Sequence to fold (534 residues):
Amino acid sequence: MGDAASADDASARPVATTAGARAWQAVLEHVESRLLSGDLAPGDRLPGERALSAELGVGRSSVREALRVLEVLGLIRTQAGSGPSAGAIIIATPSGGMSALMRLQVAAHGFPVADIVRTRLILETAVAGELAEAVPAPDLAAADRLLDAMDSPDLVPSEFLALDATFHLALAEASGNQVIAATMAGLRSGIEGYALAGLATIADWGATSARLRHEHRGIVEAIRAADAASARTRIHGHISGYYAETFVVPTAAPPTPTPSPTPSPAR
Amino acid sequence: MGDAASADDASARPVATTAGARAWQAVLEHVESRLLSGDLAPGDRLPGERALSAELGVGRSSVREALRVLEVLGLIRTQAGSGPSAGAIIIATPSGGMSALMRLQVAAHGFPVADIVRTRLILETAVAGELAEAVPAPDLAAADRLLDAMDSPDLVPSEFLALDATFHLALAEASGNQVIAATMAGLRSGIEGYALAGLATIADWGATSARLRHEHRGIVEAIRAADAASARTRIHGHISGYYAETFVVPTAAPPTPTPSPTPSPAR
DNA sequence: CGCGCCAGTGTGGTCTGACCACACTACCAC
DNA sequence: GTGGTAGTGTGGTCAGACCACACTGGCGCG
Fold:
């Protein structure tokens, strides 16, 4: 299947509101085209299932199958009852869909954990570097709050890990790149189980958490100091260090390239 | 999954085979747990919809909604009829799900096109660097074939672009990182429409395509020469160059960091 | 005996109609 | 005016019924 363009590709590109071998795909395409045309935008309500069913000439079950997909993909939120907040409402929360995708693919052995870690390494290293180089200093308030919360001495490891994950996500969000932020959320979700399992292999949690906290501070510090090289190196060591400590994940990639960016285009 | 508003970290983790406010979620969780336990693996057939329905005590429609999600996410392939290839079969083809996710999120304005391009830049630059540094020289045969195909003089622009996309995907696949390969496939799918639209803004297609072909050769050449720095710089310039030429997408990130991998701190 | 056709069977795909729980709305009694 | 209640429309779920399809097996013909 790894052949050239369009081998599988679940949804064809007919674009037409109709068409589609399967009825539910027609619904998906209809919604997509209305989204692309600007007819539908985040915040809008989709027609009711029965209305959509009648409008497209398909059964309600088919409409529901499509809506289910949209819901899992983080495109809509459904709410029973009546009133302004009821029905299927367009939202754009990719992290949910990304998380579901990653978790299931890991479960089905579609994504090796090592690949996820390596991808995290690449993305986070790049994010740290970008944050450090960002001209208008990025807003790290959320990250700071999380670091403070992680200093609380009575956190159980799993709580600490949750804060840790949120901290890394906060950095990605601070970069302003929504694709990276959502991808990071998904990656983390995919390896969550493994990170928790790795917890058991840590001998001295106190020492490890202290080290992690220190590394976190160092990363934020490097970003604030606009020291991209240091930020990249630190975050790379931080991530690969944790996985090296908990379970064997060949990090493969070199610690990190030095920055030396060209002066740079504005943005 | 409706974590839109509140802190989204840990949510949707019931894990239990049962549970789940909605019936279709129970099915999803059941499949996921069987996947995690190794009870189900790629290549296996899921029980029939009717059997699953009876087994879990939910209606067939609910089972179907869950299967639809699994199908879109690239986890299963369904085939009507009878025989060994019929039914719902576990596969692990994340690129399909990733593509659907990206396309729809872009359509719903959940993902700005600029962020996708920036992410592509980061991933591809890293991939090029890794390929150049890979100890057992990576297999670039697929990439070579695509480059040869792109030399054909009678390609229409859209065909050329399709080959171009496949070439970039081939590089990602050569890196052996499935997460990156799938992500790249998704990213490309999300901006496909924009790339095609940008085609119209190119004045001299012949010159542009010649330049692209030359840049491609240069990238592969740098990788073969194990010149990571050059590979990174070239691919960064290649990608940002095309988008700069077709439509305004602030590439933001600096051309690319120089390599200087761990082992040999040359320079 | 061998080959080809065809009913049988089980699968996913779809539709229909029904019921439930819920949330909001409107109305009516006090 | 205030309170509660019936009404209405939504998604959520279920049950049953077809259909198209692909494979299986047996039957009949050569």
Remarks:
- Residues 22-24, 53, 58-62, 79-86 of chain A lie near DNA strand C (CB under 10 Å from a C1').
- DSSP finds ten helices and two strands in chain A.
